From TrEMBL:
Native source organism of the sequence: Rhodosorus marinus
Residues of the Peptide methionine sulphoxide reductase MsrA domain: 1-84
PANTHER family with a match to the protein in the record: PEPTIDE METHIONINE SULFOXIDE REDUCTASE (PTHR43774), PEPTIDE METHIONINE SULFOXIDE REDUCTASE MSRA 2 (PTHR43774:SF1)
EC nos: 1.8.4.11
Classification via SUPFAM superfamilies: Peptide methionine sulfoxide reductase (SSF55068)
Protein's recorded name: peptide-methionine (S)-S-oxide reductase
Enzyme type, top EC level: oxidoreductase
Superkingdom, natural source: Eukaryota
Length: 127
């Protein structure tokens, strides 16, 4: 979950940098009690660290129906690297992450997630 926290602003309600609306709120969705406990513990760790300087408003909720984004949103950063870089820079994302985590900005990226976890996350839930 550290990858998640190191790539978002968990202190704004219904907004994530330039994107505004309830669909842009930060949230962690869990599928079982073990995941819920892990999510709550992770959030508590960051609340107690006060690293964000404001109250964390990220929701922790049970997973429900998941709607995939349209094709043009899938792998947007790969399909549109220049636009994505422009967005990150001009919406304050990189500046914000650097102010929280230091010169390197976010110290985690998608490449830090082991392939088995990435594979598991990309598969629909068969339960």
């Amino acid at each position: 979950m550290d990858v998640f926290w190191h790539n978002i602003d968990p202190t704004t309600v219904n907004k994530e940098f330039c994107d505004t609306g309830k669909q842009y709120r930060t949230a962690i969705f869990y599928m079982n009690e073990e995941q819920k406990i892990a999510a709550l513990a992770s959030k508590k760790k960051y609340e107690e660290s006060k690293v964000f300087g404001k109250k964390i408003v990220t929701e922790i909720s049970p997973a429900k129906t998941f709607w995939e984004a349209e094709d043009y949103h899938q792998d947007y950063y790969k399909k549109n690297p220049q636009l994505y870089a422009f967005y990150r820079a001009n919406c304050g994302r990189d500046r914000y992450l650097e102010s929280i985590w230091g010169e390197s900005g976010s110290s985690f990226s998608i490449t830090d997630i082991p392939s088995a976890v990435k594979q598991r996350l990309s598969k629909p839930n068969s339960d």
